[in-house]
Amino acid sequence: MHRPFDPARLLCAALCISLLSACASAQQGLRVREIRFEGNATLSADLLLNQMYMYPTSWFDESIMNDDPFLFSEDVLQEDLRVLKTFYQHEGFLEATLTPSHIDADPDGTTVRVTIHVAEGPPVIIDTVLVEMHGTDGAAADSLMRTVLPELALRPGMRFRDEALQADQATIIGVFADNAHPYVTAEASLEVSLQEHHVTIRWGVDPGPAARFGEVRIRGNERFSEQMLSERLEIEPGAPFRERLLRRSEGELYALTLFRTVTGKPLYEEARSDSIPVEFSVQEASPFRGHFAVGYGREERFRFGINLTWRGVLRSTSRLEIDFKRSELEPYSISGRFVKPDFLVRRLTFVAYPFIRRENEPSYTADRRGIRLSLEHPLIGPLDGVFSYTIEDVGLDSATVSVVTREQDILDAYMKSAFTLGFLYNTSRPPFNPDRGTSITLYHTLSGRGFGSPYQFNRTLLDIRRYEGLTETLVLAWRLKAGVLISQETDQFVPVEERFYSGGSTSVRGWSRFELGPRDASGVPIGGNSLLEGSLELRFPIWNILSGVAFSDFGNVWMPSLTYKLDELRFAAGVGLRVGTPVGPIRLDYARQLGSGKGLTQFFFSFGHAF
Fold first, then answer.
1. Which among 53, 58, 184, 467 has the fewest CB atoms less than 10 Å away?
2. Are residues 229 and 179 in the same domain?
3. Average pLDDT over the chain, rounded to whole?
4. Measured between alpha carbons, how far is residue 233 from residues 111, 216, 255, 312 in Å?
């Protein structure tokens, strides 16, 4: 049934449009202070603002950050509305409309606030996803396609999005290219029902002929032989073509740190029959590099470091690094690191790490000098394994040693040796500011083995970290850390520098460094043999490179082994600011003790996330 023509309604609408147009003209040239959206139930205001050419600036942006304001233009606003409408259509809202509902000048007559009304309309929902296979590969291709379907982003019942369709096309092509079909094509046709707001996606997939790797070439290498670099590659001539192995080979060459860039590509134009040559282009980095860094933190105070690196030692793939560091916690630290990839067998890395340093902790001051020898090897996917042997001499300053069993013995310099087995699993990304993935490290150390160390004990430490993106801008991060020390001595003695401690900027932030746990009669922390800690952080953007966190920490240390008294856990909560940099955030945290704590507060200023 059609609604009868109503001249009054038409006249009212015309008057509203005329008034809004006149209002927009009156605001021409004013600084845009705010852009608001109403009715955008599905897409966030931040996402919509990112699509616009017009942008708002605050007083802080203009006066403090010296950002240029955007001067209001009716023509630009109309173009932005057209762009936003197209964006909504790409997101599956074909009937979306956007109109400026308010364009208001502030009382000072120099700034304007814009409100945009969004009528999203019903989204287009996926009804069916169909696949039609072409070509002659038959059952094998059909079987491969069945493994792809569960990985597609667009499935029945979901909202259609152009970006997801393109991602699905890339997924299909990637899976076939990774299974000996680099010539695969995948095209989608859409059957849209505007009346029912449904769409059927029909994929046409042609795997193309199967192919193998042909000749492998490396160019751009001047200081390193092609044979030496070829040993790092994951591909061999004659093996089935797999895109994944091509990308992994790029990563293996880049991981040598010998090159600024590494690019691997198939040479389809030189393909013969089913054989495709592959070429890796490398750009060599300078063999020598020096790096100087300075900083300040609440615990480390003023610190500086110098790193000297020699890459490609004697025209090999080895690397030599020397580090000099100084801070309040380490008055001096000199260490070396010699790295030899493909040691004895492929992908086995040998690392020699000699060191000499002084540790100035609240519980002790120790002079340590020794060497650690490690073998590192990737295991399965993101899981790596490491086996190391450490031997060192330790001297403790008698003025800093708390009352412990064997006090007279521990004051003299003594030797320690230990074997360590570790496993590292890491899918967290990106490296310095992760917003997704998991990191798990597990280390078990047997001390007192080897060259007659007088102190025998087992030390196990587990650290689990998880990062989850709740929305496009919110990240939930959590950590759980647990450790245990079991002495093999009759008096259960463990050297103070090997014990667990809790409290500080990367621990339970309501307490200062090492403040939690057992103490001696003088109030000096003496550490413990059991550790349990955890943290929960909500990370959110504030403005530009400035972000914030709200966090809660818990933890404690106990002297007996395998002792975790939950009623003795200490809790803290707080907030913090982060200033983003290319190599991690600058961090300021404020934390307050909770529960059975004393209600005291702590401020921490440092570099990098707490975890």
1. 53
2. no
3. 89
4. 60, 10, 12, 18
